[in-house]
Amino acid sequence: MTSPDTPATAANSAKSMDDIVALCRRRGFIWQSSEIYGGINGFWDYGPLGAELKRNLKDAWWHDIIRCPPKGPDGDMISMVPVDCTIIMNPKVWIASGHVAGFNDPMMDDRDTQRRYRADQLFVFFPTNVQTRHDTFGIAVEAVNLQEAEQRWDDLHKTGAIEHIYKLASKQFGFNPDEPMGIAGDSGDQLTAEQQSRTFGPNHEHPGDWVVGTKLTAEQRDRTIAPSAKKFGTLMAARQFNLMYQTYNGPIQSDENKVYLRPETAQGIFCNFKNVLDTSRVKVPFGIAQVGKAFRNEVTPRNFTFRSREFEQMEIEFFIRPDAAKEWYAWWRDARYAWWQAVGLAGENLQLREHDRDELAHYAKDGAGTSDIEYRFPFTSPGFGELEGVAHRTDFDLRQHAEHSGLGDKLKYFDQERNERYFPHVIEPSAGADRGTLALLCEAYTPDATRPSGVYMKFTPRMAPIKAAVFPLVNKDGMPEVAEKLYLDLRQKWAVQFDVKQTIGKRYARMDEAGTPYCFTVDGDTLKDQTVTVRHRDTQQQERIALDKVSAFLAEKLA
Ligand code: ATP
Questions:
Q1: Are 226 and 235 in contact (CB under 8 A)?
Q2: Residue 524 — φ and ψ, nearest 5°?
Q3: Within 10 Å of residue 352's Cβ, how many Cβ atoms?
Q4: Positive or negative, the Cα torsion across 465, 69, 371, 404?
Q5: Residue 194 in this model has a pLDDT that exceeds 60
Q6: Which atom of ligand 1 is nearest to the CA of 315?
Q7: What is the position in ligand 1's atom list of the atom closest to the CA of 298?
Q8: Is pLDDT at 486 greater than 50 in this prediction?
Q9: Would the N or C end of the chain have less CB density within 10 A of its end CB?
């Protein structure tokens, strides 16, 4: 059952990402970085509302993970400590972690459109019953998974682009599109171009095979058309592309001075494992957590902030006895899933997905498991996109650093209870603050034709960028003074706005779009009976409460 404050949320599949992006821009949640110069691909800025929203998410994580972590699987308190490490580290860190040798994405360039694709995100459809005079040809679409590829294939039909592609195919491979093309239908009959276009038409029940870009043979590539390309055969072979940004440390731009912008925050934690042990009196099991920027030169940044080149991570490395990995892995996986629910992703748009064995990183193959906490974004719907990964990383990282730094056994943990030295195993919950913020935005976005704004943002009060607004009904008759006093009091504790401009209806509309859960209006009656109107965002209902109870009201609602 939904409470009056929380009417059912619209399904994400029905929400338009374009509308969400437009609202983010219009209301100052998220803008393109350096927009006045045309922006820069893969980089985003947070405006006044977005900065508050993202901070609320990071603050909630910091509070719930570092200051007040939940009790562990056995009901005991757990120790968590924070670190804040540099973005540029000694480059040997990235050799030890495996990022220099192996942090690669396979990419494919298209000579015709000059576009670059991640080869594992290029799906090529080869109709299989193309016979006789002509070999089959491939039509590529860009998608994160097969489900999305099938949608893109649908789009090609809906927009009529597919017919144009068939014409190109017939021209390039030398057949006349107006004559029977030698393509056999399911019945074995020869089809005319028109029949063929119907066969491949909106239902596209035509049998065929999908081949992922990474698996394309050279021959298949020669007969494939890239997205938006004007001819077949312009895709180049897949190449490995290292995602780390490089720069130089100091004034001399030589190979010895090459350094990297960190592609994850985790390695700063591993490098300080011994420092933390030596200074913080922590005992296994314990965790080290960090929030900070990470940089990846993603081949194809896309889907708004989902895949950015600069983003923020919220990472935990939780150190445990090797024989306790199963228990802690399951506990962290469930605790992190529950946390995302608690910050407002409570519905069917959130799912936990255990990785198949062949998806696991090499070091995780013998581990307790890896799972992703995934959100159904409007652009992945009906599929899901990763918000956070929870992985049992075994003792891989500590061993690597022990070897590469020369510290060897000195990096081991001494377990006093067991009188034993070992490399602890690690459970790593690694979350993205930007993907989290984007999920909050998508979840909150609620079209509502009955409101002047046409939409409102249904953030949980804890995540709402502005917790309350204070309005004098009119800007005279003593109302602004009372309203200002209330505002100055409330803003000591919460992000609150004061607004006197335009009609009260327009002010409510602005707050609906900002997702402000409560608006307090000071009117003529306030001066007589010391009460104000409180308006609830979700129900639009209004009630009167005592002026001197507003702070307590908000404290209770925001608790
Ligand atoms: P993907 O498979 O989507 O590239 P990943 O598995 O490489 O993600 P991790 O290395 O596990 O991601 O990073 C942990 C978290 O960091 C992810 O769950 C995600 O929230 C965030 N993240 C990773 N890459 C990006 C990016 N390019 N833009 C925004 N957030 C990112």
A1: yes
A2: -60, -40
A3: 15
A4: positive
A5: no
A6: 14
A7: 27
A8: yes
A9: N
Per the model's pLDDT, the better-predicted residue between 532 and 174 turns out to be: 532
What pLDDT score was predicted for residue 6?
A: 39
Interatomic CA distance for residues 386 and 401, integer angstroms? 28
For ligand 1, atom 10: residue with the closest CA? 264
How many A from CA of 100 to the centre of ligand 1? 18
Nearest atom within ligand 1 for CA of residue 388: 18
- List the one residue out of 262, 264, 303 whose CA is nearest residue 118: 303
- Give the position, in ligand 1's atom list, of the atom nearest the Cα of 312: 30
Write out residues with Cβ below 6 Å of ligand 1: 264, 296, 298, 307-308, 311, 313, 386-389, 430-432, 434-435
Give pTM, 2 decimals: 0.84
Read off the tokens for 362.
């090499």
Structure tokens at 125: 């459809």
CB distance 520 to 489 below 8 Å = no
Cα 433 to averaged position of ligand 1 atoms, centre (Å): 10
Cα distances (angstroms) measured from residue 397 to each of 11, 271, 404, 464: 41, 9, 10, 38
pLDDT in tens, 241-291: 899 999 999 999 999 999 999 999 999 999 999 999 999 989 999 999 999
Atom 3 of ligand 1 has which residue's CA nearest to it?
Answer: 386
Question: What one-character-per-residue DSSP string does 302-334 give?
Answer: BTTTTB-SEEEEEEEEEEE-GGGHHHHHHHHHH
Reduced to 3 states (helix: H, G, I; strand: E, B; else coil), residue 16 is coil
Summarised one tens digit per residue, pLDDT across range 357-406 is 777 776 666 788 999 999 999 999 989 999 999 999 999 999 999 999 99
Residue-by-residue DSSP string for 476-504: -TTHHHHHHHHHHHHTTTS-EEE--SS-H
* Cis peptide bond prior to 461, omega within 30° of 0: no
Q: Return the residue matching tokens 């939940």.
A: 70
Distance 498 CA to ligand 1 centre (A): 38
Residue type, 94: W
Ligand 1 centroid to residue 308 C-alpha, Å: 9
